[in-house]
Amino acid sequence: xxxxxxxxxxxxxxxxxxxxxxxxxxxxxxxxxxxxxxxxxxxxxxxxxxxxxxxxxxxxxxxxxxxxxxxxxxxxxxxxxxxxxxxxxxxxxxxxxxxxxxxxxxxxxxxxxxxxxxxxxxxxxxxxxxxxxxxxxxxxxxxxxxxxxxxxxxxxxxxxxxxxxxxxxxxxxxxxxxxxxxxxxxxxxxxxxxxxxxxxxxxxxxxxxxxxxxxxxxxxxxxxxxxxxxxxxxxxxxxxxxxxxxxxxxxxxxxxxxxxxxxxxxxxxxxxxxxxxxxxxxxxxxxxxxxxxxxxxxxxxxxxxxxxxxxxxxxxxxxxxxxxxxxxxxxxxxxxxxxxxxxxxxxxxxxxxxxxxxxxxxxxxxxxxxxxxxxxxxxxxxxxxxxxxxxxxxxxxxxxxxxxxxxxxxxxxxxxxxxxxxxxxxxxxxxxxxxxxxxxxxxxxxxxxxxxxxxxxxxxxxxxxxxxxxxxxxxxxxxxxxxxxxxxxxxxxxxxxxxxxxxxxxxxxxxxxxxxxxxxxxxxxxxxxxxxxxxxxxxxxxxxxxxxxxxxxxxxxxxxxxxxxxxxxxxxxxxxxxxxxxxxxxxxxxxxxxxxxxxxxxxxxxxxxxxxxxxxxxxxxxxxxxxxxxxxxxxxxxxxxxxxxxxxxxxxxx
Length: 654
Known about the structure:
Low-confidence stretches: 1-19, 38-90
Radius of gyration: 26 Å
Distance between the termini: 28 Å
Strand order of the largest sheet: 6-5-7-8-4-9
Helix content: 40-55%
Number of strands: 19
Shape: globular
Strand content: 5-15%
Largest sheet: 6 strands, parallel
């Protein structure tokens, strides 16, 4: 379906102020492209006119403490402001495949500038047609290649431009601005506040950060927004990449359309189904009967309620599907429904799984329940809402205590806060000592729980070496012997990849003990547990079946996947040990959470909640952080993310 605004002349049509602003900016970028084609790029400090000049004036006015003219930005008031934390590694956009001639031309430029030849294919794909000339004219565009840092792009620029390459070069400022926003996206932000972006530019040696942002705005590299027009609220200028701005705009439009659409079926049949269900499952069925968008919150046990809803809707003759974050979650949920289809979100969007699409490109579905909803980033959520036909019902269900998505946005949390649709909170607690422990963590309390069946075991350690030793011992010996869970069903979770007790070190130790071998195929052997990442931020656990000329054959979620040899190094890691983000959306019979002494800064309540709640029967905690663990649970909430979705949903809030 199209997400473009309808004509204002159409009956009942309404173009929001935010849509009007984006439309104006699209026209401005088109004008900019025409201007570029007619003459050389503007010089640093050159005068601007029209909308671009107004945007620059708005930024300067905010920085000086004055409010910009209300005519420049037309958006509603946002949710309360949130500070922007440090930015991290970039979110990768899909890279186009360039032809051999373009790659060869780029390779020549890279060699001339002293950059690795191996970047040629990715650079040619990222920069598109004429990539070699783009790099000659603007060497800092090398930052568009994943993994390249400003200091490396600076060296490349000096080799190509000589004395012309300077920290204050307008091209450098614009490229670093985009690079920082891409890194911010990987930290969850869809936009950054202007002061936070300017400060980050200063740390990268850009001498006039505000001017760099202004130039990037003027050239159409980034978009700018304002979120405060009330006289009592301070004005914020937000800067973001078009990719995420458009996704948030599309998501807000899609959510509004679903919330306003008339459900295909309601009445006595729905009421009878609700009356037959128990407790909050009945509440969920009643809410879905009369609304196109419903939120459902709860832990693992609460999944019985979406299952009851889908079974009831299927019994009414509706086309019903569920979507989970991972193949592991798909298999678990499929066992609880009888008739409704279950897919992964990625498979549903790609068409590899699910009901297929109708002639208009919409999913052939009347009711879609998306589980693990906190894992939805803004782009996936936008694609889902765009894919649903008018009149379809969308249920977003998940545990609000877990870590947010790896990709940008905090869609589920923003929707819960916006209160634009019915919300059903499950009253079904997770059972047993593990359920009691995790429930306490959710409210900021790390309680000692009675565990007569050794459901929870704390293993204190003094240093990194002991942490690795005890982890291997638990997985290979103690848990299988004392709990009856074999090593292949026990998952290790640790805060990070690097360091003495990160995933790399733990996986090396676990492989040596559990599946030693020469690693003839990129370090892997049949029987190795792996974490496969077909796309950035999306991890699928599995195991190695075999390797041959086609590539590395994996089994993930009961399906065989072949990873070509050239993609193995980039997409496959050993998977006995994962991070909590990689483990989100999955559960195992036994989990060993490793908390070495240097893990304290990485701990937060959502991290601990996510890691501890991955266990079904048994949880071992290799504990070396002393009081940092209860302090993190009690005092360290989720890291803030700066998004525009609350602003876009504000006009609909009750």
